[in-house]
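> forwarded from #structure-qc
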């Protein structure tokens, strides 16, 4: 996986914003003020991207792909972390980013959703 490509993809999503959390040494991506992706490292220093995921799909992904684990420092039911050194394609991870984005966007108020859409 290419971190730069995935960062560009995150920022290409409608209304997406970025910040850097120094305490976590992590790049965070938000929509409507709510995080949908975070790129940083795990406790061993291995780079990961952490994404929200529908719970049953999250578990299925973890069982299917060795490089996908329960969300590092996140709610393990709703978040997965994906190792950058796994053999997953950027395209596959982009689909997971899109899924995370859509889960977060759908939970925003209609007012905030409409503001983002009309920007």
């Amino acid at each position: 996986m290419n971190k730069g490509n995935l960062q560009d993809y995150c920022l290409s999503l409608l209304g997406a914003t970025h910040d850097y959390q120094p305490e976590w040494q992590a790049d965070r991506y938000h929509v409507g003020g709510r995080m949908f992706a975070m790129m940083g490292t795990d406790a061993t220093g291995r780079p990961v991207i952490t994404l929200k995921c529908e719970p049953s799909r999250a578990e299925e992904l973890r069982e299917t792909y060795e490089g996908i684990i329960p969300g590092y420092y996140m709610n393990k039911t709703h978040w997965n972390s994906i190792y950058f050194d796994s053999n997953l394609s950027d395209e596959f991870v982009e689909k997971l980013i899109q899924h995370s984005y859509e889960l977060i966007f759908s939970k925003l108020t209609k007012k905030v959703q409409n503001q983002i859409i009309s920007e």
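QC bot note: The radius of gyration is 14 Å. The longest helix spans residues 90-107.
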